[in-house]
Structure formats: structure tokens, C-alpha cells
């Protein structure tokens, strides 16, 4: 898995600064498309528990979006509140900047349904 890693982004409550002592540490592990995102990948991660400052690290494996202007919700949240921890070759930073531009331009918007936020392409 390490040879497929492109970058790591801290996101969620730890990145926003509102984590509680019981919160886990959420990270996006960005990997090359040559690595399939399978249950086996998550089982391998879970086989060696990782902690940071005494809190469990919860990984979510992702590929770079094909088109940052159509990025999914987790990518939009990472672009707004995430902290880039590791980036091989600058591709993750470039993607996050492109997503932030799409948000600033009004192309990607945050909406709410039944009290829950979600991201979508503007109509």
C-alpha cells in the first residue's frame, strides 16, 4: 500500500479543532488508481491499529477525483477544512486548490437536506 500512496489529509473534527477526547482522528489516504479500494485494503489497515496522541486513526482511502469541479462531498470537506499532511509530487495540493476554486466560483455548493449538509454541483 505504501508504494501507492500519494498523500494524506487530516479532516473531520481534528482538522476543524473541535475534536473531543473520545474523537477518532480522521484521515484521507490518497492512493494511485492502480490500487483498488477494497474491503481487503481496509482490513489490512485495521490489522495494525494506529493511534495519534492517544486517539485511534480512522483512514478513508480515496483516489484523486477525475474532475475537481465534480468532486464528491468528502473531497469538498477536505478542501474547506482539511489539513494536508503529506503530498508526493504536489498533486493532492493541486486538487484541493482546484476544488476550493470551484467552491469560490459557485460551481460546487454546500446544501442541506433534513438538517444534513451535502455538496453538489450548482444548478
Describe this entry's structure for a reader.
With 123 residues, the protein is of the alpha+beta class. It contains 4 helices and 7 strands. The protein has helices at 13-16, 39-46, 73-81, 91-104, and strands at residues 5-11, 25-31, 51-52, 55-62, 83-87, 108-113, 116-121. A hairpin with a 2-residue loop joins strand 6 (108-113) and strand 7 (116-121). Helix 3 packs across helix 4.
Helix content: 25-40%
pLDDT averaged over residues: 94
| Biggest sheet record | 5 strands, mixed
> How far apart, in Å, are the first and last alpha carbons?
38 Å
Rg is 15 Å
Neighbour order of strands in the largest sheet: 3-4-2-1-5
Notable traits:
alpha+beta, 28% helix, globular, five-stranded mixed beta sheet, 4 helices, two-stranded antiparallel sheet, 123 residues, 7 strands
Could you write a compact summary of the structure shown?
With 123 residues, the chain is an alpha+beta fold.
Task: Write the topology of this structure.
Blueprint: E1 5-11, H1 13-16, E2 25-31, H2 39-46, E3 51-52, E4 55-62, H3 73-81, E5 83-87, H4 91-104, E6 108-113, E7 116-121
Parallel strand pairs: 2-4
Antiparallel strand pairs: 1-2, 1-5, 3-4, 6-7
Helix pairs in contact: 3-4
